[in-house]
Design goal:
It contains 2 helices and 6 strands; from the N terminus they run ββαββββα. The chain is α+β, with helices and mostly antiparallel strands. The strands form 2 sheets. Strands 3-4-5-6 form a 4-stranded antiparallel beta sheet. The radius of gyration is 15 Å and the shape is elongated. The chain starts with a strand and ends with a helix.
């Protein structure tokens, strides 16, 4: 599949880079799985089930024109709506590491995928 630019809206600013719809679908699946695990853990705490079981961190990697890594430790966030992810984007000339809101990254990926039907 051909690549086209995706834009991630960060806490301050944004970043755009070439991405493929296939990679976006893989990222969407990883983000959905992370969100579901976080919702289940917060529901366990809310229902009086005590402390939530420790969750595995999510680590997504993509190598194309640039290397992208998205990391989230769900154990430090109360809900998916409060969670932030660490985004690392690099190539041979530049490296960017920053945080973004989980919900905003999900919206950005969904908006990107809407272009492809």
């Amino acid at each position: 599949m051909s690549s086209s630019p995706i834009t991630f809206n960060l806490i301050e600013g944004s970043v755009s880079f070439s991405f493929t719809p296939e990679a976006a679908n893989n990222l969407k699946a990883a983000l959905q799985e992370l969100t579901e695990r976080m919702k289940a853990a917060s529901a366990q705490v809310a229902s009086g089930g005590g402390k939530a079981s420790p969750q595995e961190p999510m680590e997504y990697q993509y190598t194309g024109e640039v290397f992208l890594e998205i990391f989230c430790n769900p154990n430090i966030w109360a809900t998916p709506f409060a969670a932030k992810v660490l985004i690392t984007l690099r190539d041979e000339r530049i490296r960017l590491s920053t945080e973004a809101e989980l919900t905003r990254v999900i919206e950005d990926v969904n908006q990107y995928l809407e272009q492809f039907g």
